[in-house]
Structure formats: structure tokens, C-alpha cells
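quick one before i forget lol
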Amino acid sequence: MPGRMLFIYTREEVAKHNTPTDLWVINQNKVYDMTEFVLDHPGGADLIEKWAGKDVTSVMLDADQHEHSQVAYDVLAELCIGKLVESTTNINFDDSTATSHLQHPLKHYTNPEDPSISAESNDFFLNSRSVETFHPLNTDIKSDLKKEKFLDLNRPLFYQMFNCKFDKEFYLNQVHQPRHLPNSARLFENPYLEMLTKTPWYVIPTIWLPGVCYHIYLASGTLGKMTIALLFFIGIGFWTLLEYSLHRFLFHVDQLLPDHPYALSLHFGLHGIHHYLPMDRLRLVMPPVLGVCIAIPIIRLGYIIFPAYVAQGIIAGAMFGYICYDMTHYYLHHARPFGEHLREMKTYHLAHHYKNSEAGYGITSKFWDHIFGTELQPGLGKVE
């Protein structure tokens, strides 16, 4: 079953979300974002707004006020964004009360190997400890296909996409619900095409570092070391903007995507598969063929805009920035982060995958997300 990523909050943090446009509640130590549900609440918006930022556990169980049905609890489960803790420090993950689920007719069981994972819901509770050892449960392929009716992960995926009968809305909903497999899913029946879709992380520096050195060499024929260093860092800065722009406006062009199987297949190949199978080790960094196709027009544009020796220094920095980007991307998905920045960026990027794919486009930093108003705060969506 597709998984979600959830977060931990204190009562003080929940209490801040107490307005009709930003409304959270607590129920049995779980935190729920009710903002989108307020107007649909059968008891009226006023009743739910009265409890904004508060604990509704006693109200939900009070038969005198209104005994809630199983359907109500099913709806509530879909709105869960995290769990309640007394403090975000010194959390004991062996404490069963820290991971308690809804106690009404719903019954969930925690994974004994990791109490922060619910075996039934396949939800992931993210915190400074669990993000370092993030290993989601594998998807039950037969069960997923039977329930979701999307793609059969046992068969080549591109053939299914090219011949799909579902519409864009269904596709986007499904592709942003992550699945997890122990090995890479097959995209093509043809072994040569299949080989081109798989890229181990070390291929990126192997292919692109010579390009960095070559452009530095070209620039050194005209420019001094200090000038080349300045242009190199300008190129790195340019890449960070390009990283953000490509991720937001090319890879996430969801709203402008034509509702046609070929367009959906193109989207799936460019980036959709990464959101569909985010922990696939061989499809995390950009395949060299795709990377070259994107790089050539950008490099040519650089030579048109700038004198050749200036373009060479900037291109060298931009290529190096790209290498750092793809290495960081792989690291955030599969390594135990060291240092505050990398731990923060791993939490941030996994939230982009498991919480809100329409924000949080930065991989190496949040800088351009902050500038353009797409910064993602865990559990909140965009920061206003």
C-alpha cells in the first residue's frame, strides 16, 4: 500500500494552528490537519472551529454530544499529519504510547522492528532520529494492484504507461503515492533500453568531472586563476537556480500536462517514476543520456550570452554544481546524514516526496524555495 510520511509535534506547536484557514486538532495523541475538511464537517464549521488547536479526544468519544461513526474515523485517518509528543527531545521510541493509533473501531499494529511504522497503514513518522535510518516497508505488489488499479510492478512499466486508459488526475494522484520495492522495477522489455534507465551514483562524477576539468582548462588559456575561481562560483550559484527551476517547472509541470498517454509517459520517465518509486537506488541520479540532452542547449545558451572564456568558467562551475546536486540527492535518500544541514535537508526532501510534492523543490538548500515562496515546512505545506 502507498505510504505517507508523518511528523511529530508538541501541544504548543499544534495550538498555533487555531484559525479557520489553518486548523489542526489532536485526537488520541495523533495530530490532524482539518483545514480542508472544515466546510465539509457534517456538524458545521463552527463546531470544529471551536476546537481549533485543541485536543478533541473526549469530544469524539462523548456519546452525549455526538457519537462518531466508523466513517468519521476513516475520514479522520486520512487527515492525519503526525503524532503528539510531550517534547521533541529525548523521545523514547520503545514506548508504545508514543506511537498509539486510533483506539475507536480502527485497529492498527506497529512493526516490532520499528515502532514508528504502522504495518497496516504503512505510514512513516519522521523525526531527527528516524530520518537517519529511513527504510520504508516494501509494497505488496498484488495487493497494491488490486486496490489501486494503477501499474503492475511485476511487468515493464513503460508499456503499461503508453497503453494506459486512466486520465491525468488519476495518474497524478497515483504517481505521488510512493511505492517501495527491494529491487528496481523494470521499465522496458528490451534489455538495452532498460540498461539506459539505470544509473549507479558513481557514474555521475565519472562522466561529468572530466567536463568540469576541460572547461577550466579552456578558460585558463585566457583568464587568471582568481577570475576563473570567481566565474566557477558564479556557475555554482547559477546551477542552484537551475536546479530549482528544472525541478519545479519541468519535472513538476503537473497542471500543464496534457491528458494523453504519451504525455503522461513522458512525465513518468522524466520524474514521475522517481516519486512513484523514490527509494530506487538505480533511478535516483539522472541517466547520462537525459543529462546530456538537458545540458547541451543550456551550454550552447551560455556560449551565446557570454564571451567564450567567460562561459567556460561559468559552465565548469555549473557542471560541478550539478554533480554536487545529484550526489546530494542520492545521499539524502540512502545515507545516514551528518551535520545539521544535511539532516535538515533529508527531512525536507523526504517531506517533498511523502507529504507535499507541490512545494519544497530545493535539494541542496532551501534558498530558492524561500525566495519564491515554495518553502516546505514539515506537515504544513508552503510557508506563508
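fyi The first strand starts at residue 4 and ends at 9.
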